[in-house]
Amino acid sequence: MGILDFLSGQFIDVIHWTDDTRDTMVWRFQREGHEIKYGAKLTVREGQAAVFVHEGQLADVFTPGLYMLETNNMPIMTSLQHWDHAFKSPFKSEIYFVNTTRFTDLKWGTKNPIMCRDPEFGPVRIRAFGTYAVRVIDAGHFLSEIVGTDGEFTMDEISFQVRNIIVQAFSRIVAGSGIPVLDMAANTQELGKLVAAEISKVVADYGLEIPEFYIENISLPAAVEQALDKRTSMGIVGNLDQYMKFNAAEAMGSEDSAMASSMGAGMGAALGMGMAGQMGQAGPWGAAPAQPAPSASQAPAAPPPAPAEKVWHIAVNGETLGPFSRATMGRKAQAGELTRESLVWTAGQDGWKRADDVAELAQLFTILPPPPPPPAS
After folding, report:
1. How far apart are CA 301 and CA 282, in angstroms?
2. Confidence check: pLDDT of 259 > 50
């Protein structure tokens, strides 16, 4: 290497860092074999801080701006005197750039359920998760306490430790807050502020702060959530006695329909078997031979029972009246107690309907006699 190349290598450096990543917190300036020279220009952009380390010790922290490094680390005359080091100074200086912007949308969550005492349910276990943001507020302290001599330090290298601090603080605050589990969803903002304040006290020792902290969800174990769903369903049902009566009436209607279907199938099968027997005993020309008189042991089987009669219920002023047979419904129609607008229900019917919309009851209003004529004058 010629003397001119050597001297040109000793002149002014331009030291700066443009971050093209999303997770780098600290980056060491790469000198590519050259020491930092006298009068080098240091550019620190907004959202950055530069830490100057001289001879292994933290010398200074530079905030955003343009600086001339007028140190005695390696001026031209000094380097020319170090012949035994091949023109390389044994005293090294380094520049570490620290990203001071916010690292956002970082995730946190409880690995295991947190035990707490609820004033309504007693001991319960809850889980929680959310997001947070972190920022370096003391670049020198952060470099000396966390980074050390790491040339490229990313957020992933410290996020695990920050998450542990968050979960510990969250567990302690939630367990001692006394807020009922059912009210925690309405108090996540207040809980988040308490947790963020507690976390900031710890991470301040690392040169960090937590400017944002959010609780997105607080959940209970699956078994407890199922029990709460049942309790909610009972509250929606309201009057349990009326609900049980309604279910019983529906079950009776279903049983009556099933019984009628089975009875109809049985009667059809019996008729089919009787006709087949008569045809088998008929003569060659279709004339049935004389049948012997049945003995006492061959007495005819009793006829099947008549199908159950359909009954109706009437809704009057929020109450359910009935059940009434069709004949009774006809008498009520004649007496004016049942009108076309009356709401009625029977087993197998989809909800309450107007009496005029039910074919079996609409006939009751069509066969009523017209009003009597006025008396003769």
Report:
1. 22
2. yes
First to last CA, the chain: 143
93 by Cβ neighbours in 10 Å (0-12 / 13-18 / 19+) ranks as buried
| pLDDT for residue 268 is more than 70 | no
Residue 111, judged by CB atoms within 10 A of its CB (0-12, 13-18, 19+), counts as exposed
The DSSP-derived string for 165-210 is HHHHHHHHHHHHH---GGGGGGGHHHHHHHHHHHHHHHHGGGTEEE
* 206 token code pair: 């690392």
- What CA–CA distance (Å, rounded) separates 334 from 360? 15
The pTM for the full model equals 0.53
Closest of 145, 154, 133, 139 to residue 196, by C-alpha: 133
pLDDT band at 363 (very low <50, low <70, confident <90, very high): confident
Instruction: Answer yes or no: are the C-beta atoms of 345 and 312 closer than 8 Å.
Output: yes
Buried b (16+ CB within 10 A) or exposed e, 300-323: eeeeeeeeeebbbbbeeeeebebb
Asked if 113 and 127 count as a contact pair (C-beta separation under 8 A), the reply is: yes
